[in-house]
Amino acid sequence: MQDAAGIANKGPIRKKSPKDLRNIIITLVLVLFLLSSIPAVTCAEDELLLNGTGIFLTTGESWSFDQGYQLRVKSVNPANDRVWVELSLNGEILHEGILGEGESLVYSHNREILNITMDTIYTSPSGELVTFKPVYQYLDPALPEPEVNEDTEDNQSQDDMAGDQSEDNSRSIPGFGIMIASIVLTTVKYYLDRKGRDKK
Predict the structure, then answer these.
(1) Rounded to whole angstroms, how far apart are CA atoms 153 and 80?
(2) Which pTM does this prediction carry?
């Protein structure tokens, strides 16, 4: 009586034909192409509402963010480069603080929602202008998602538009061109090698 291993080893051995090899290569190329066409989107990109933009406020002014958040400049002390800010959500004060140049107000609710850095205070006879840059806002999952407003693009500065264009370019699939070139070169090499073997 033979054991199972002996039976398995004495089975017919099938040689791979060039047709089988071609089918394997075509399948691999198709799989790679399909995988490369899937958009490379991360959760963080989907949740990012403001990506490092800059905002400008004078004393007493407020900036309304998506999902009902609001930043208000309560007072400015240009001599010390300090700003008193208030962060609220739908009229309810969440945080108040004094920021110096380069300091950040970070608001978290189970995770980071807002990250606002005070950049510069400009003074003039008419008052003070405070710039906050970069400003990041992430989606707050506890609140309803913001509605997409097409008029928002009209209100953006040229810097923001240029940043968005470079951001769109950065979302392209890294190495896609190299991958396609390597697939083409591999396919050409395979057929040239095959043609060389057929001539012998």
Answers:
(1) 35
(2) 0.53
Closest CA to 94 of 142, 145, 55: 142
CA distances from 61 to 23, 39, 77, 87, 90 (A): 67, 40, 15, 12, 16
Which of 57, 52, 48 lies closest to 99 in space, CA to CA? 57
Under 8 Å between Cβ of 50 and 132: no
Give every strand in the sheet of 104-108, ordered side by side.
48-58, 127-138, 112-124, 104-108
Helical segments of the chain, H only: 4-9, 18-37, 43-47, 152-155, 158-170, 176-199
- pLDDT tens-digit readout, 14-61: 666 666 777 777 777 766 666 665 554 444 445 888 888 899 999 999
In this structure, how many other beta carbons lie within 10 angstroms of the beta carbon of residue 112?
13
Angle formed by the axes of helices 18-37 and 176-199, nearest 10°: 170
Alpha-carbon dihedral sign for residues 142, 60, 83, 93:
negative
The letter for the amino acid at 164 is: D
Gyration radius of the chain's alpha carbons? 30
Residue with tokens 């089988």: 20
